[in-house]
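Throughout this chapter, every protein is written as a compact record of paired, labelled lines. An example of such a record is reproduced below:
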Amino acid sequence: MNPVPLDIGFFYKLPDPPNFEVVDSSLYCIPSTATKSVSDTDDAENVPFESKAEFFKFIDESVIGVHKPFHGAFGDRKVVYCDYIASGRSLFFLENFIYNEVLPHYGNTHTTTSITSLQTTLFRHEAKDIVRNAVRASDYDAVFFVGSGCTGAVHKLIHNLHMTKPPIVIVGPFEHHSNMLPWRHMAAKITRLKTDITGNVSLDHLKQVLEEESKLAQEQDCDLIVCLAAASNVTGILLDVNVFSALVHRHGGLIFWDYATAAPYVDIDMNPVITGPDRDYVYKDAIYFSMHKFVGGVQTPGVLVAKRVLFKAGETHPDGCGGGSVCFVRREAQVYLQDVEEREEGGTPAIVESIRAGLVMQLKQAVTSEAITAREEVMVKRAWSRLKGVENLLILGGDRAPRLPIFSIVVRHAYPLVNGSGATPSNEAPQLSPEAAAPTQPGKSCLFLHHAFVAALLNDLFGVQCRAGCACAGPYAMDLLGIDEALAKLYEGALVKSGVGTCRISRFFDASAREVLRPGFTRFSIPFFMSDEEADFVFDAVRFVATYGWAFLPLYTYEATTGEWHHRNYDAGEDRQWLGHIQYSKQGMVWRRGKAKSRGPLPKSYKECLMTANAELKKAIEFVKSAPVSPVPDDTASFDEDSQKLRWFLLPCEAAAQMRGEVGQLAVPTGPRSPWHPDAAPLRASDVDKEGEKATVKTLDPGNGQPTYKSNASPSESPMLKLPAESTKVYSGGLSVDDGFSSLNPQTLTQMSQVDSSTCLRTKTVSTLSAVNEPVPEQRNNHCVLARQDFHVAADSHNFMEPEEEKQVEMLDDDELQEVISNLNGLYMPPKPSKTQSLIRSLKLDHSLWKRPIKQLYKPFLTAIKKI
């Protein structure tokens, strides 16, 4: 099946729409983003957008749920969605078109005799043709709507390859699990490419591998397949697809491109037309991408476009055989259709989803790939401008390769000295002492903020929606984080041992649960239609968390079995909506919404939101420093010996101890050293200021050694400097309060002061680590060089311990819980929490684990097992 230069044939062209000027017709439009009706409009009113910026604004304002307020741990916030690389969001005008034009005519496909089926079939065929033309597919290419994303597309492609021998497969370093794992199970040999000095895929390494593997493929008479991602979903780094395609084809290989990350933002061309010696080799054998990653693409299928010659296996056994895929079926045999697109889409397809996919692709074509690419380049430059100079912030992938505005970050932490000399005025930003501002050389003594904590804090403080983990690109994540194969095996052993993937109920202090140890990063992206103001707010939020985020750790707790982090005094489940609450009556469909209490007013602007975060920082520090004893339980010794060696993140009790100057009083006073370190350095501040940008950079005042914020914005425009002079209120725990108000619970604080530190869990062996200030040689690329930070404190504080009079919730009783646990596969856990003082937790958090949903979910299970 080795490829040869192809005559790419004729491109499929959409049929011309009828000329409505010569027939009786009306022009319709959707007049607003908040209506589900259409109205007549006049041709004279159908004026195009004056600029792409106006088009972008229209898209931004049409996102369903854009800036939706929610009740958060620090008060009300607006949603700022920065997770489009995971999934897009719905658009009013597309959903309104489906509501008004598609659904009223809906009928099943596979027939054209009824008006509903005819119109639905035509809609779906046209949607596929829109996609076909958008990717410049020729008559030699087949287009499929597959499953819900790339995973289904890859499996359909593999099934149809009809390979008599296992192929030799080469995969790129960026590959998503969906473009890597399926090949592992079918390849005779699989080779993973390296990256070059810029962080991009090494073309030289690919040449070397192709020369070796093409000879081996000829000897074994098997196919050579190369699978590459057009863009990394972790770093956004872009590949020159034509160069790589030509190189693979010159060595007789097949090239399959994963466009899942790149498709919404770049031009896709199955059969590029270029000049030069590579003109016959730059075609693509197959591409696949997920339409749900496009803006407006919620509930859309995946797309597979591939050369028809690859679908030999389906002639005898289609991957999707079923109704609609056959020409004739008799009692003992069947004859499948010859057309590969019809043959491989057996059964009722995702009809409305496919039509929506066509609408989404049509929107991208209307905006144009050129406009999107230009806007994305501006956003990347803007990010470099505003994020440089933050010593604690590591942006994985660097800034040397062309990329999309996708940023995966790691926030590191050295042992800062907390200045106890007094509080700063409530309207000023916390200042770093000269000692703390001086760069240290922590080397491998640094830890990191847990990626899930960073994501939670961005959500709680700023409403920024991002994602924490490895982005389903495990090997690439390990490359970026500096985790070699030996260390990866240790993490694998720890996570598998902890019961990952098993069904079980586990409590917070399950000593064998180590999911929280899983390394990762925090990823956010900036969509092309986001305004400059909103993008700058996101960058400022990231700067704030990277610089001051560690000080919020004492307010948070983590779940060892899931790796999730939550504010100690906030239960996100209070706002949860339930399908089970839906009822039907004469009023129609009726449901209930929970009435969660607001913890503070909604900031009126992005600048005010940043100021609020600044005030919350001061209260968080004051809460920890003003307590007679540390209000955070010491759980440094709750990790067993193996876990202690693998722990890479700062604990809440360690952050509190550092702020109080009590590190030596911890059960494990010196803390661990992170076993891994990203091979990355903070972005330099020397070239931050770009023309036309309002970059904010931390610099040191030569007069007093204090850091200042250099900005092209005026002082009144800089949200990081101070609260408005007329403001007389600050925010405590999200509540708007007077300056003299304190939400600290004295009774709880007194109880906490009686905690005996000797009751802390301890392991038999605790490795002795170097002292905090021990000098360590500078590491390669200065990837752990950061400025130690020092905070003055403010006058207000947080209360994250609840009174004992908690509202009673419906829970499984002990007998029911015992019965559930005993019939599940997994480690038995006692129904009641341990009384160990070192692991004391908020009653509210404790109850939140066992609220009504547990009883609702497990009652059927209890009934079933009683009958056994």
